[in-house]
Amino acid sequence: MESYSLSYASLCGLAVVVAGWLLHCVYKWRNPPCNIGRLPPGSMGFPLVGETFQFLRPSPSLDIPAFYKQRLERYGRLFKTNLVGHPVVVSMDAEVNRFIFQQEGKLFRSWYPDTTNDLFGKESMVYYDGSVHKYVRSFAARLFGIDSLRDVLFAEMEHSVTQNLAAWATEPFIEVKDAVATMIFDHMAKKLIGFGPDKSRKLRKNFDAFFQGMVSFPLYFPGTTFYGCIQGRKKLQNVLKDLLKERLSTPQMRHGDFLDEVVDELRSGTGTMNEKFAVDFVAALLFGTFATISSALAVGMKLLSDHPNVVESLKEEHEAILKKREDGRTGITWDEYKSMTFTAQVTNEIVRISNVSPGIFRKALTDVPVKGYTIPAGWLVMISPMAIHLNPELYEDPLTFNPWRWQDESKKSTLLKNFMPFGGGTRHCVGAEFSKIQIAIFLHTLVTNYRWKEIKGGDVQRITEVVFPTGYHIQIIPREG
Ligand code: HEM
After folding, report:
1. For labelling, which of 150, 376, 432, 443 has a CA lying 20 to 30 Å from the CA of 143?
2. Cα separation of 256 and 259, whole Å?
3. Angle at 179 between CA 214 and CA 241, to 5 degrees
4. Which of 100, 180, 211, 430 for a ligand 1 pocket mutation test, highest count of atoms within 8 Å of Cβ?
5. What is the Cβ-side half-sphere exposure of residue 223, based on CA atoms within 13 angstroms?
6. What value of ipTM does the predicted structure carry?
7. pTM for this structure?
């Protein structure tokens, strides 16, 4: 009896110690240390998962999700949280964002959560900084820089858009995001790795679940979104690795694609690029081109369908361009592209509302004071372009698709100052101009030759970018006359 009470007492004692230890851990989790100053307000959520599940909950409309709205009301434009185990300061403050962009490699450096690194590779472009980063950007500019865009890609994009729209017009309907993604992927798979449509479409299947992985919880077992993503990435990497190996073993054979240049670089012996990086780099470019623009254009098509007055103004601009042509030419010139003022305004509105980038991540290299708070060394900062672009103090009536807001010269510079869909500073998006051209050529060819009818789908949700849970299906119809 006595020994029973003793062991019962020890068990109770142990339970108290464990409970105390757990409480201590929870307290430490919820009250992270800050050496100087004070942390921004906010909650670190539950141990291990933080506030990840709240963060991933979509809004059932174009509006900013509740995760941001509630914290904006409670804490203001700068708040702390924990996402997938990382302490993060979320910035919805345009001034703070501009400051962070300018501090790349000084107070902050590019850093992405393990989930993103698992998807894009631990040594992807976002991993490098300083001179290696500069070198990689200049390497990408061989394909996406202004000379290549104007002299090579421009005409190719027009050809690809013309061919695809004509093919879509023979179908009862198309799902916009998927059709645009296929169009861009086919073009880019040819340019980057020399794949024709058959091989390219097989390769793209590996990307299908990929994009969701960027905003999924990193649970790696069969059946989870994250598992599907990583499997897709592995298959993709194997295809690219085998291709690179084959190309390296036959360097004398030229294919007229970007991989030729990668092979030259790897064989040059400068050592700046290695094979592992080359594979991740090409995969990221393949992904970056089609996933981003297809999402933006799907939102763009929905917004245009809902705003026929914008379509009318687009038609006016593009028909005027056709009328001005005196030589019976059919292709768009670079000068014509540069003259598409209203189209540029429409493009701005599409990227402002769609917010394709889920968030821009940086890591504080030291304790950084901002707006009366401290971002401790080692913490992440997540810049949310969406929260800026949908802020009614910066963009009047922000959920309204209004290309004319960009017309007023007196307001334009303020709008542009706060416009950050492509990031900023030394990491400004490599594909920003490519994206704008692709959208302009698409809109030109569409409104001058076709009209369209909504068939099904089109309901939207927003995580940060806008998504269509049941797709968005439209019929493309040739215009008469
Ligand atoms: C609507 C289309 C697009 C949007 C909204 C977009 C957005 C962004 C953003 C916000 C960043 C900054 C990331 C950071 O600072 O950490 C970025 C970087 C980047 N983007 Fe895009 N992007 C788009 C299209 C493209 C395309 C078509 C390409 C293909 C070439 C591309 C390639 C890249 C690359 C390589 C970087 C990394 C730049 C660096 O770290 O220096 N993007 N993009």
Report:
1. 443
2. 8
3. 55
4. 430
5. 0
6. 0.99
7. 0.92
Cα separation of 237 and 233, whole Å? 6
Task: Kindly state the helix (H) or strand (E) to which residue 298 belongs, with its residue range.
Answer: helix 275-306
Give the confidence band of 123 by pLDDT, cuts at 50, 70, 90.
Answer: low
Compute, in angstroms, the gap from residue 435 CA to the centroid of ligand 1: 10
41-478: what CATH class?
mainly alpha
- DSSP structure class, residue 149: I
pLDDT digits (tens, 9 = 90+) for 52-74: 999 989 999 999 999 999 999 99
Taking the CB of residue 208, how many other CB atoms lie within 10 A of it?
Answer: 13
The answer to whether the annotation marks 429 as part of a ligand binding site is yes
Distance CA 304, CA 423 (A): 25
CA of 421 to the centre of ligand 1 (A): 9
Domain boundaries, the chain: 41-478
The atom of ligand 1 lying closest to the CA of 143 is 30
